């Protein structure tokens, strides 16, 4: 085999090993540029084009980033929500929320903004609770299959949180085990305590906005487009007609929402998931009286015993659950698709 010593033809200094990417070498000592007699050292071949991920899947571009749409996660009052992945080798899964109509565009933008404000909150527990809020990635218009631009927002995907209270009720049409309802309500109240401590109300604590992690006994809230600073005393910017029985009645008359509104809506959602009537707070007889009584008084913010402080209500729930079931212990809860 023949070897060639690489020396600068100008000053004779040794060249460093030629970098594969360069077609020429510059001498570190005399600054001369040397090109091989054959016209240059070989350049690295251009990177091979990445094979596209699942080319049959539809693509959507938001804020200059392309996503492959994997499937639908759900449908909101004003939006379509999809699971997608960044269309690149180093990928990440995201939730893509697209406004169904132009009139709903402001709600998608509003949610993105409010969530950003809450993520900046310094209220007690911010470090823990901010991880339970949607994590914004990007927002901007996305073109639908007809080419019409629609307002869209992208959030990070949280694996495990994919069943809403509405789907839990589909899986348990006569209602969940009251023990499961206890941890579900506790998680909602803890998160609401942080939201209220930050000066906001969620304003739409409804079954389709409550996502359950069945194994970890976690619950998070989505659907933040109605959230607002309660000190503003503004009425809710949107209400879901389909879920009328979940709102305290004064909200339909334009009353400004307060933390008590969220607590009442959380109680009504829990009543529903227990197989009861959200409006009256009536639950099946299988629900032990301490829990049934607490729910019944809490669905109505005007009830003389209703609490308007989320932590206090959580403490009261703790006591009611101890009365009914003894000290807390882990009771497995399953949903379709979970072993
Ligand atoms: N982060 C998420 N992870 C999994 N599923 C989600 C997520 N966000 C939304 N979904 C699904 O999409 C459905 C609709 O989403 P969402 O409730 O946020 O829409 P919306 O009612 O139009 O929102 P909003 O009330 O803020 O305008 C939810 O009920 C749920 O099934």
From TrEMBL:
UniProt: ATP binding residues: 97
Database matches in InterPro entries: Kinase-like_dom_sf, Prot_kinase_dom, Protein_kinase_ATP_BS
PROSITE patterns: PROTEIN_KINASE_ATP, PROTEIN_KINASE_DOM
Domain Protein kinase, first and last residues per copy: 67-339
Alphabetized UniProt keyword annotations: ATP-binding, Nucleotide-binding
Annotated protein name in UniProt: Protein kinase domain-containing protein
Naturally occurring in which organism (per UniProt): Stigmatella ashevillensis
